[in-house]
Design goal:
heterodimer, A: alpha/beta, Oxidized Rhodanese, domain 1, Metallo-beta-lactamase, Chain A, 12 helices, 20 strands, globular, B: alpha/beta, Translation Initiation Factor IF3, 5-stranded parallel β-sheet, 4-stranded mixed β-sheet, 6 helices, 9 strands
Chain lengths: 375, 189
């Protein structure tokens, strides 16, 4: 029987289509518990590869024969090793090419909608880590928001659309993933923008994103309006695009809200978070489509794999927007915080330009889920 | 340099090979002996640790130098001898008290050098059980000696050897390092 490689992109499609399949994850138990491929119809089994070195006979009857079986490990070596043993026992089996590293790095571009004068807005879903980036395109120009480390994907996508990247924006100084913003701006000779209050320690030049500042895309002037919305970080800025889309960064998600503690200042910033969500956002049009910088659970994905919801719906359904009592709110966002993202302090240092580790180290730093939200 | 009885070279190998080689080499190692696994795959640290836990071997620690990792493991079948026959026994707490009172005692750590390197009682002398016969003449027979190992088993044997050689005041510390809550010193980074 044969062992077939399967790419992270193919697995992403299966997850989006809610396909039913079986994952044999052969990483060690801690790694599996911490972070795995999530999907609504996936059946899992976790046995470390080192317990299977002498053979797979003992687990064979627990591996289904009526659905696709994908073996997963950290990089791929161990999954091939185990998959070959399963194939020798007469089963068809696949392994995830590049392992969880490839899963962490895969970006799935999805068109979110059109702009009024012919442009479009695209979302890049980093399905393995829950990060969302955006490309706003109009009349031959493109603006990128919250780009990830995989800069080629954005640059190649712009090439395919035949548009020129002019501006690259980050809603805030990220703590869960390495920003590709500065690198893209350098590569295309564009402008890199950061909120100045998040950038007090950065070692490079940037254009300050200030409240009310307008950035245009293309000759038709699709306005990107910056809206100061602190809380996740002191500088966090949201963008309103074409009066139709609200890019909310790490302030407001579909089923959760931003956590205020990743720069070490939960107590100080919880008031800002409350002010942003309960006052500033309340003043915005309810039919704005909220486009966050993250999703936390796979249920937040829409049918087409995108992540978005009308602001009015979130006011009605998002628990974090419906806590009347300020003390209770304070307690929720500071009292019960999830573990911090992997290497978040090093990631912040890197996004400030203070350290420049090699690519392998960057990959390691980003391993795991994003953990930017509180519910 | 940490002493090991067997060195496994897994440099340049990607997962799963470091563990496959380690597992194979472990079969040839004697019970209680120490293995050094040299590897360059960063993921090997977590995996060696998890594998040791699942297979019952003792994971001692890992050093890193210029991108090369050295993992240290001690072979164990998980069934160390329980019964102890040296008549003079001290609890960990008694030793801790003696040390904090600055009593003039010698702490003799009879575990393997690699175990000692990754954590020992400050001021303890390293004298692996296998080398004890050679080193006996260097020690003061009148001194108050506390003998420690990981669980109290090797130190029991060492205590008996010392008593038989004419040492007057020898106490076996039970359980020893596996239950030690006092200060710890490392000889590696």
């Amino acid at each position: 029987m044969i062992v077939t490689p399967i790419t992270a992109g193919e697995v992403a499609k299966k997850v989006i289509n809610k396909e039913n399949f079986f994952i044999l994850d052969v990483r060690n138990e801690d790694a599996f518990t911490d972070w795995k491929i999530e999907g609504e119809s996936i059946q899992y089994m976790n046995i470390p590869y080192f317990d299977l070195i002498d053979g797979v006979e003992e687990i064979l009857d627990q591996i289904p024969t009526d659905k696709e079986v994908i073996v997963v490990c950290a990089k791929e070596g161990s999954s091939i090793f185990v998959a070959e043993m399963i194939a020798e026992e007469g089963r068809d089996v696949s392994y995830l090419q590049g392992g969880m590293k490839a899963w962490s790095e895969h970006l799935e571009p999805v068109k979110v909608g059109d702009l009024k004068d012919g442009g479009a807005i695209y979302q890049f879903v980093r399905i393995g880590k829950g990060c969302l980036s955006y490309m706003i395109v109009s009349n031959g120009e493109a603006v990128i928001v919250d780009a990830t480390r995989m800069t080629d994907v954005f640059i190649d996508f712009a090439k395919q659309l035949d548009v020129k990247i002019t501006n690259v924006l980050d809603t805030h100084l990220h703590a869960d993933h390495i920003s590709g913003g500065r690198k893209i701006a350098e590569a295309v000779n564009g402008t890199y923008w950061l909120p100045p209050k998040d950038a007090t320690e950065v070692t490079f030049d940037y254009e300050p994103l200030e409240d009310g500042r307008v950035i245009t895309v293309g000759t038709s002037k699709i306005d990107i309006q910056a809206l100061y919305s602190p809380g996740h970080t002191i500088g966090s800025t949201s963008f309103i695009v074409d009066n139709a889309y609200l890019l909310s960064g790490d302030i407001l998600f579909i089923d959760s809200i931003g956590r205020p503690d990743l720069a070490g200042l939960a107590e100080d910033w919880v008031g800002d978070l409350r002010e942003t969500l309960y006052s500033r956002y309340r003043g915005l049009a309810e039919d704005l489509l909220v486009l966050p910088a993250h999703f936390m659970i796979i249920e937040e994905l829409n049918e087409d794999g995108s992540v978005s919801e009308k602001l009015g719906k979130l006011f009605a359904n998002n628990h974090g927007l419906n806590i009347e009592d300020e003390q209770e709110f304070r307690q929720m966002v500071t009292g019960n915080l999830p573990p911090q993202p992997n290497a978040y302090q090093e990631i912040r240092q890197m996004n400030m330009g203070k350290i420049a580790p090699d690519e392998e180290t960057q990959r390691e730093m980003e391993i795991g889920p994003n953990r930017c939200a509180v519910r | 340099m940490i002493q090991a009885d067997l060195i496994v070279d897994a440099k340049g190998l990607a997962c799963p090979m470091p563990i496959v080689k380690t597992k194979k080499a472990m079969k040839e190692l004697e019970q209680g002996s120490v293995m050094e696994v040299q590897a360059t795959d960063k993921g090997s640290t977590a995996d060696i640790k998890a594998w040791a836990e699942s297979s019952g071997h003792q994971y001692l620690g890992t050093t890193e130098k210029d991108g090369m990792l050295a993992h240290y493991l001690r072979k164990s079948d998980g069934q160390e001898k329980e019964e102890m026959s040296h008549p003079h026994v001290a609890s960990n707490e008694e030793l801790e008290t003696a040390l904090s009172n600055r009593a003039e005692v010698i702490v003799l750590d009879v575990r393997e050098a690699a175990e000692f390197a990754f954590g020992h009682i400050p001021g303890a002398q390293s004298l692996p059980l296998g080398e004890i016969d050679i080193a006996l003449s260097d020690l003061d027979k009148e001194a108050s000696i506390y003998v420690v190992c990981r669980s109290g088993s090797r130190s029991d044997m060492a205590s008996q050897k010392l008593s038989a050689a004419g040492f007057k005041d020898v106490k076996n510390v039970v359980p020893g390092m596996s239950g030690w809550n006092g200060p710890i010193e490392k000889s590696v980074q």
